[in-house]
Amino acid sequence: TVVGLCLERGPGMVTAVLAAWLAGAAYLPLDPAYPPARLAFMAADAGIAALVSDGEAGRALAGQLGEAVRAAGLDDPVVAAAVAAHPVMVPAAGAVPPGRLAYVIYTSGSTGTPKGVQVSHQNLANFLASMAARPGLAARDALLAVTTLGFDIAALELALPLATGARLVLASQETARSAPLLGAEISRHGATVMQATPATWQALVDDGWAGAPGLRALCGGEALPAALAQALLGRVAGLWNMYGPTETTIWSACRQLAPGEPVTLGTPVAATRLHVVDRAMRPVPPGVPGELLIGGAGVARGYRQRPALTAERFTADPFAGDGARLYRTGDLARWNTSGTLEYLGRIDDQLKIRGFRVEPGEVEAALAAHPRIRQAVAAFRGHGTGAGLAAWLVPADPAAGLPDASELRAFLQGQLPEFMIPGVFTELAALPLTPNGKVDRAALPAPDGQRPDLAGAYVPPATPAQELLAGIWAQVLGVERVGVHDNFFDLGGHSLLATRVMSRVREVLGAEVPLA
Ligand code: AMP
């Protein structure tokens, strides 16, 4: 069975993962910050038998799921008393059959709904053994865990210290999102390992983090920019580039980067094979770009209840020829002459937003469901701090035009997590098309850099402090002007940008503003 976990970050989250495993079940992370409709979809699609929660979002979800799902609220005094009275369980080695599922994790789906990747204990155990050796973790280490449980890489943060005897330090949600708090937390606990996406590492560097001489930095989830790699190499004891899709269990390749060396993906983790192939699935020689296929012990069981999609992405492994399967990553890569893999981009439209996978098709389907929108396209635009997800929309009625940005955002918030919501919406009379009638993404105009069309009227800053703050917002958000009543999120803001605002406010006004 699958157990849904709708939990705030805390020791209870770690206990619940272990409890699900010892009961022989897989866990399904249900991020309390996600829209209720998305949580309900994932819970139903995964067919959870039980739900463990500790807050309002979990209680609401339990109510929605009804009697068929057994719900336990850790904040319910009756449940807490039952847990406290329960004898301590010491699991026997080999208590869980390796073929059992360890977790089901949903990732963005190009056809409009998310899909659940099913990873077994066998997949996870091979991965953890590999990580314990390279990059390496031992009893003397302290790993600072910062990643939401909804992202598969959180399983490394929780399970690797427990499997190796290292100390696990769980950063609170507030600390994980705030660069100054995170920087302080690394020193306070003497962390020797931290894993994060490039966006989080970048936020630390931008905040003026001096670094930590005893820290090994694992960076992965999306391409690591060379400038960020150089900035980190001067601040930490070691920097590793970690690469891999959820479908092949967390990371499938890694490399420790040396100063001055180009950023590459490195070599496969244990019992993993990487193949770069052409369209006919023939291996290409070093230097020639092709699609990266991953085979071996990390290849997951497939997508939950999606046999056609599973068959499309997980194909028979022609190189092993023993009935094993390969995962087609959709990543474009090439081998260099020293046997190291280089990442070149995607062969499809899949995006990464602050480490999270986003299929533009899912954002487009959500937008097109609005009655006043006829067509929608979503893509990544911009560079630096202003970069992010943008949408181009054709209104259903050209005379009436589009709903304002605040309304569009509120509409999407009902269905999509924060990172999938575009920062800017640009109205078009028609989408640009290629000669064969497909949307020509390259021909989309630059997104509107003006203050977006918000519901409230523009009220200009009046005092010197207001002017300074509006200037900071405009710079961080990449918009031309900011009014004193404007909503940060409606202007395209998100938690990491809020952290940047905090840093700039500290620099310019000498004031400490808490993230909350
Ligand atoms: P996810 O399953 O959400 O972790 O997304 C996996 C995808 O993220 C991969 O297929 C790559 O496109 C991208 N990715 C992950 N790590 C890296 C990395 N170190 N360098 C470049 N791309 C990466």
Descriptive key words:
alpha/beta; 7-stranded mixed β-sheet; 516 residues; binds adenosine monophosphate
Task: Report on the architecture of this protein.
This protein is α/β, with parallel strands linked by helices and 516 residues long. Helix content is 30%, strand content 25%. It has 15 helices and 24 strands. The protein has helices at 11-22, 36-46, 56-65, 77-85, 121-136, 154-164, 173-177, 179-188, 198-206, 226-233, 307-313, 360-368, 405-413, 464-477, 495-509; strands at 2-6, 26-29, 50-53, 70-73, 101-107, 115-120, 142-145, 167-170, 193-196, 212-220, 236-243, 253-257, 267-268, 272-277, 290-296, 302-303, 314-316, 325-335, 341-346, 351-353, 356-358, 373-381, 388-395, 424-427. The strands form 6 sheets. A 7-stranded mixed beta sheet has the order 8-7-9-10-11-12-13, sandwiched between helices. Strands 14, 15, 17, 18 and 19 form a 5-stranded antiparallel beta sheet that branches. Strands 2-1-3-4 form a 4-stranded parallel beta sheet, with helices on both faces. α2 (36-46) crosses α3 (56-65). It is globular. Residues 107, 220-224, 241-243, 245-246, 265, 329, 331, 343, 346, 352, 357 line the site of adenosine monophosphate.
